[in-house]
């Protein structure tokens, strides 16, 4: 079994030869990049996926493992439902059990205001025939009979799923490789090659590849890469701390968000824990540059956001980070092969205590391991999935805002369709790149 977290200590699994020419280059080996590349290959194209470190080593293996429709932004909701269908089709094809289980998602409401927000979302989401429903306090107690948290009700979606991300994404990558995708780990893309503004190739640390089309799925690194090419994307990152418990009795088969802790059942018999709202934000040059754009979401989340004066050296928005480099010089992506932030130790202790307080019969909740990931976020809490009009041949799929794993197979398919110039089958106006520059009002997605 793959050890976790995935780091550069993991052996390189994909060491394909760098082609001189390819139809598509996909930058980034997370869930979005892998499923984009796989979709392109199944359409009969030559595809090269380039990952600066290891497949799924960053947020795609560090997330909570939820595959949910519940609480999604309404623009994302039909895509999330497609993704759930795709996960069901993909899992049987993989070379290992990824723990895909339909365990449901439950948000607990401590007061009428929270329940009203959930009802407001459900009133709009019913158009998409979701299985979600509002629960009374008694119905919540039936689902969580051993819980010791006072609630007035909850929002429950029984058809939501869960899976083990550090198993799932590498397994999909192996399947993509079998279907013809050339995957090269430990190979950073330094710059785009352009002629008259149009994509003609990429420059990697190992040399040039000729291609007319590039899909950027670089997660937390996307904004830094784009700025090097004169393209501004208001993207920042927050540190999210997560922990794995030792095996415990089952209290709920899916994922739930309580007062202070979010948890989901794991295939190994433990739970993945995370603070239900708390995260850390590092102040850097981009946070000052994009301050105005992020004001609405900061006002909403100010109580849950712990500000840090600076990111560790080498992080995407660290003070002193290199922001200009040539194709012939080492890039920031080579200096930081895997973004591996240190977890917040206080949060780890706190969420273990909170889980034990919520379910006293469990006794001491012991943490087996803890990790952190940098969640790439945009000002409205939904991603950009779009072609870049100013750079023909460039497609962006980034800013998944912490929910890229669950929705990944669908957004990967959509990014591939966009890159091929085909109809993606969904209204993507919500995810257009231009919304941050055309005077549109920021419309925040729903927070759990």
Q: Would you mind describing this structure in some detail?
A:
With 448 residues, the chain is an alpha/beta fold. It has a single domain (24-104, 159-436), classed as FAD/NAD(P)-binding domain, CATH 3.50.50. The chain contains 12 helices and 21 strands. The chain has helices at 31-42, 59-62, 77-90, 112-125, 137-143, 165-178, 222-228, 285-289, 291-301, 332-335, 345-358, 404-419; strands spanning 24-27, 47-50, 66-67, 105-109, 133-136, 153-157, 161-162, 182-184, 189-195, 198-204, 207-210, 214-216, 236-245, 255-257, 261-265, 271-275, 279-282, 305-308, 367-377, 384-387, 394-398. Strand 15 and strand 16 form a beta hairpin. Helix 1 runs parallel beside helix 6 (165-178), helix 1 (31-42) packs parallel to helix 12 and helix 3 (77-90) packs across helix 12 (404-419).
The overall pLDDT, averaged over residues, is 95
CATH class call: Alpha Beta
Radius of gyration: 21 Å
Topology-level CATH name: FAD/NAD(P)-binding domain
* Helix percentage: 25-40%
CATH architecture annotation name: 3-Layer(bba) Sandwich
Number of separate strands: 21
Helix/strand class: alpha/beta
CATH homology-level superfamily: FAD/NAD(P)-binding domain
Alpha plus pi helix count = 12
Shape assignment:
globular
Specify the biggest β-sheet: 10 strands, mixed
Distance between the termini: 32 Å
Number of domains: 1
Give the DSSP E fraction (strand runs of 2 or more residues): 15-25%
């Amino acid at each position: 079994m793959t050890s976790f977290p995935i780091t550069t200590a993991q052996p390189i699994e994909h060491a394909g030869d760098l082609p001189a020419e390819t139809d598509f280059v996909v930058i980034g080996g997370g869930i979005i990049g892998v499923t984009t590349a796989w979709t392109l290959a199944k359409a009969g194209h030559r595809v090269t996926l380039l990952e600066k470190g290891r497949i799924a080593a960053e947020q795609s293996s560090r997330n909570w493992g939820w595959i949910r429709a519940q609480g999604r932004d309404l623009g994302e909701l039909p895509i999330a439902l497609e993704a759930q269908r795709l996960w069901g089709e993909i899992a049987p094809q993989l070379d290992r059990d990824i723990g895909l289980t339909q365990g449901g998602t439950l948000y607990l409401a401590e007061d009428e205001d929270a329940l009203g927000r959930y009802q407001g979302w459900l009133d709009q989401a019913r158009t998409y025939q979701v299985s979600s429903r509002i629960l009374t306090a008694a119905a919540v107690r039936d689902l969580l009979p051993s819980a010791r948290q006072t609630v007035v009700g909850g929002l429950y979606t029984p058809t939501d799923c869960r899976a083990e991300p550090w198993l799932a994404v590498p397994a999909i990558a192996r399947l993509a490789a079998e279907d013809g995708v050339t995957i090269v780990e430990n190979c950073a893309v330094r710059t785009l090659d352009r002629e008259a503004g149009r994509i003609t190739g990429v420059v990697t640390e190992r040399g040039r590849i000729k291609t007319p089309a590039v899909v950027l799925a670089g997660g937390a690194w996307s904004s830094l890469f784009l700025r090097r090419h004169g393209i501004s994307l208001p993207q920042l990152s927050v540190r999210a701390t997560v922990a794995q418990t030792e095996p415990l009795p089952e209290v709920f088969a899916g994922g739930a968000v309580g007062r202070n802790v979010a948890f989901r059942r794991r295939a190994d018999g433990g739970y993945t824990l995370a603070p239900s709202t708390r995260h850390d934000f590092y102040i850097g040059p981009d946070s000052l540059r994009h301050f105005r754009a992020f004001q609405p979401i900061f006002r909403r989340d100010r109580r849950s956001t712990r500000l840090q004066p600076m990111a560790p050296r080498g992080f995407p928005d660290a003070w002193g980070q290199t922001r200009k480099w040539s194709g012939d010089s080492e890039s920031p992506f080579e200096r930081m092969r895997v973004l591996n932030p240190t977890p917040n130790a206080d949060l780890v202790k706190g969420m273990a205590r909170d889980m034990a307080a919520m379910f006293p019969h469990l006794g001491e909740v012991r943490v087996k391991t803890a990790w952190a990931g940098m969640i790439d976020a945009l000002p409205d809490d939904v991603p950009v999935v779009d072609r870049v009009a100013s750079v023909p041949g460039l497609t962006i799929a980034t800013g998944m805002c912490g929910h890229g794993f669950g929705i990944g197979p669908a957004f990967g398919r959509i990014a591939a369709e966009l890159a091929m110039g085909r109809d993606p089958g969904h209204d993507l106006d919500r995810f257009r790149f231009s919304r941050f520059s055309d005077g549109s009002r920021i419309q925040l997605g729903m927070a759990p």
